[in-house]
Amino acid sequence: MNILLIEDDQTLNKNISDTLKAEAINTTSLYDGLLAERLLKRENYDCVIMDINLPGKNGFDLCKDFRQYNTQTPVIMLTAFSELDDKVQGFNCGADDYLTKPFYMRELLLRINSLIKRSNTTTTQNTVIVADDIVIYPNTKKVTRQNQEITLTPREYQILMKLSENKGDIISKNDLINEIWGKTFEANTNTIEVYINFLRNKIDKPFGKNSIKTKVGYGYYLDTE
Fold first, then answer.
1. Which of 33, 36, 159, 178 is the S-S candidate for 57 at Cβ 3.0 to 4.6 Å?
2. What is the DSSP pairing of strand 75-79 with strand 97-100?
3. CATH (one of 3.90.1530.30, 1.10.3720.10, 1.10.860.10, 3.40.50.2300) for 2-120
4. Are 76 and 66 contacting, i.e. CB atoms less than 8 angstroms apart?
5. Which residues are CB-contacts of 118 (< 8 A; sequence separation ≥ 6)?
């Protein structure tokens, strides 16, 4: 397992790095956003941990640009702030998870393992999944609608897959959180609402569709009729 850690606080960087290495996780530590950007283009990692307030290039911009060419590698953002707007911006830039300082190292390890496990999960299906005019190719994680390819983050893809696999059945917010983020994630319905909105902006709105529907008080479902 290879992790890239980008944190400009030298003490925290060392504490995280030491914790990961104690778990036999190969860790590369950086302190600057611009240096990280160059390395991300050259090397492959199983997970990236980045602070938001970085010198050179902040975490929001770094993550957003990273997602232009890599939508698969999980990204965990670290910040000293706990405002919802910061989390929304982080998720909007393509982050998969979010930890507010201070945090327990054990929690960081659980988040890393959960993200990597899900990103490495492969399906044995050789056939594509078709929902209305949405086509999902599980082996390559490719998604198209009306023959146009749609770029999704790993979390957005996982939510779409879960909705499509349930063939119109309603899935509650808590079930989506537990299934995709894992039961160790602090359940926050705002998180899933944000992702559903992102997904609608990519899957539905550009095509004049309303496939991802809300059953108020129950959850979400994919309408393929």
1. 33
2. parallel
3. 3.40.50.2300
4. no
5. 74, 154, 158, 180
